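hey so u asked for the seq, here:
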Amino acid sequence: MDRYDNVLNSDEKAAFGLRDLYRSYGYRPYKMSKFEEYDLYVRNKDFLVSDNVITFTDTNGRLMALKPDVTLSIIKNGKDAAGTVEKVYYNENVYRISKGTHSYKEIMQVGLECIGDVDDYRILEVLTLAAESLKQISDESVLDLSHLGIVSEVLEASGLSDGGKKEVLTFLGEKNLHGAMEICEKEGVCGEFSDAIKTLITTYGDPRTVLPVLRSMGIGKKSLAQLESLVLALTEGGIDTVRIDFSVINDMRYYNGIVFRGFVKGIPTGILSGGQYDKMMKKLGRKSRAIGFAVYLDLLQQLQNSEEYDVDTVLLYDDTDTPSQIAAALKTLQKTGTVTALRNPPSLKYKSLITVKEAANLG
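ran it, C-alpha cells below
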C-alpha cells in the first residue's frame, strides 16, 4: 500500500490496515445494503449512537432508512447454529448527525462482530484486536475496560430503587461522585454498598492497582474473576495499554459483561467503542452470544494538526519558464513526493519551495 500513501487520506489508510488485521484473525467481510426498513432502527433506537435516522418511502410504500448502524443489520441477517462462531468485519459508510455541525454526515466506519458460541477466548480475541486497532492508528493509545456484571451486582445489592439505579448509572458514566452519594443518602443505602459505588466511580487506571481495590469490595466475584483473567491474558500477550474504568457504561438493556472504549492521543473522545451485547441478540430473537466493536474513522481528521502539509513541494514558475520546462521540472520533483506548480507564492502549507530553474539543476 506504500505506493498509495500520497493519495489516501488518514481514514482511508486506517481502513486498509484494519481490514488486513481482521482478515489475519479469520474474520470475513460483511457487506450490507445502504437501506434497511426503518422499523429495525425505530425499535432499537437506544442501541444506536444517534437516534436521528434519515428516512424515505420506497416505491412499495415501505418506510426505509439510510443505514445509521451496521451491527443491527448483521444480527438481523444472521442465523443461530449451535457450537459455531460467525466472525465478520465491515468497512461501511453510515449516516448520522455530526456532533460538530449537527448536520447529517457520511461517516466511514470499520468494525467487527463475533457472534455465536462466544467463550472467554473469543472475548480475549476481540479485546486484542481492539487494542491492536488502536495501535495501528497511534503509538499512544489506551483501551479502557469495564464489566457490567460487576456494576449490575453492586447496584442490585445496594437496594436502590429502579429510578435510583438509573441515576447512579448516569453519575457513574460522568464520574460524578457527589451526585451518586446524594442518591445513596436519599435512598438510605448502607455504608458497605455506598462505599462500593464510590469505589467504582473513583477507581481508575492500571489493572495492577485497580484489581486489588475491587477485590476488597467483596461483590461481583465471578465477574471480577473473568475481568482479571482477561486482563492477565492481554498482558501476557504483550498488550500494556489496558486500563480499568467503570465510567465506560453502555446501555444495560442491550449490553452485558465486558464493555470497552478506545482512545488515542490528540482526540478528546473515544475513537473505538464495543462490548458484549447478548441482551440485544435476545431482544431480536437470537439465541447466540455476541461481542464486537466499531472504529469511528471520521474522528481521525482531528489528528491533522498544524505540522501537517498540504503538499511536499511547491514548484514556482514565472513568464520566463516555458510549459515544457515546467512539465519537466514537475516530473523530476514528483519522484520525491507530491508537487504542485504555481505562479505565485502559495497560501497552502508545504515542506519546500523550488523554482523551475533550481529544479532543472537537480537533473
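The radius of gyration is 25 Å. The chain is about 40% helix and 25% strand.
lmk if thats what u needed
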